Amino acid sequence: MAYNSLVWLFLHEFQHIELNHFDLLGDFQISETPNTPAFGIARRADRQLGPMLKLPVDMRAETPQCLELQADHDAADLLLEAYSTEGWEDLRCKITAISGMMMLIERADAKYNEESLTHPKAATRIFQLLGHVTEMPLIRAQVKAKQAGAKAVDPDDIPSADEIQAFGRAVTLPCFFDAVNLARVVEADTIRADLGDPADFFQDIATAKLAASDQLSQLKTSGAREWAKLVLINDRLKPFQAGQ
Length: 244
Prior knowledge:
This protein has ten helices and no strands. Helices cover 65% and strands 0% of the residues.
């Protein structure tokens, strides 16, 4: 598991570069704490102020956290690779390794005061991660439909309901309990509480998939609620990134 954790961490930091996050942030800091980097692991020295200061003031504090979620998503996509009917046990190990690293980062982040935090909660990152995992059987069909300019996916490109349910039983649901057990082992009680009840957690994922902002207020778990706040800011952030 340690190997996969480190691979994901490397991919995560590399995605900050690939997505031009350093160019967006420059030397911007969300607090006056001199030793707090723009990102928790990687940073560059001797940079000029980036386009960050052009953002609306109400976006600036949460923007570094949005960029962390962007890097999380792309790194997970690379490590987990495309959906397959094989290798589900290995996939589960990779997902749990990512969750473990997210918890380690939260514990390291806790050394700074709350105003200096640049990462979302571990539960928020795990919520996004498992949301992606639930979508994995559908991604190929979604990409194909988008490339074809179709308004909906072709049902023939979607795995059967039995296969999707089997994937949930073998991978998605166990990965939630793997994360819960990891939190218990490391005595991370706040992370365990933030993950919430499994029924609420997966209902929140189902609600989030609807992508209706008026329904996000119904989210029950702490991680899902923070994700909802950040995803709205992230939508506002995209035009700024496109115009870098």
